[in-house]
Amino acid sequence: MSVADGDFFGLLGPNGAGKTTLISAVCNLIRVTAGEISVFGHPHGELAARRLVGLAEQDVNLDRFLDVEETLRYHGGYYGLDRARARARAREMMDVFDLRAKAQVRAPKLSGGMRRRLLLARALMHEPRLVILDEPTAGVDFELRLELWRYIRRLHAQGTTILLTTHYLEEAEELCEEIALIRSGRVIARDTADGLRAAYDAGSLADVYVKAMGAAAA
Ligand SMILES: Nc1ncnc2c1ncn2[C@@H]1O[C@H](COP(=O)(O)OP(=O)(O)OP(=O)(O)O)[C@@H](O)[C@H]1O
Ligand SMILES: [Mg+2]
User: Does residue 138 sit in the same domain as residue 162?
Assistant: First the structure.
């Protein structure tokens, strides 16, 4: 499976389909036992590949002892930004994600939506060329969801490649140029939302999903 440079790609599939596993493999967080992965031409385990990817994981894995600003600055440091640049970029990200007022607040004292925003801000600190968002809008309120959509769209318009997983089909339909349905670790369908609707003679992406998963189960 490949995702083109500059694409906005959606991964859909039931719980346990392998979405997070695929992402973890790309990000070198798990050991792959077979196959090869390359990120913009670099083997996925190399530093060059790691630098190009920003990941907002499904689990909110923030360090409970760091405040918002430290979370961002330290992440910048891990990715080789010098002190001044990390500080400036952290401020920029706090402004974009409306976290400035919480700069000195530690993760456990943030609301759920704020943690999601911080997770996304952290993923973007080093200006990755590929941004992977694993269910970024799970548990996010309506307004924030629209805001995140706007921001992700803008990133994409600037040339960033986006890989998104979501259980909200309308979100995939709204945002993604290309969608892959996966089940039991296999891609069972892949096309634009329009292409999928036509191929499955379906009125909506939800119909496509039900039909494709039903056919795969059979
Ligand atoms: N670290 C691991 N070691 C072994 N098996 C794992 C590990 N993590 C996940 N799995 C298994 O791999 C399968 C796919 O899990 P994965 O987390 O990739 O699903 P997912 O598509 O992201 O689902 P969800 O929508 O629930 O997030 C599941 O059966 C899961 O139990
Ligand atoms: Mg998952």
Answer: yes
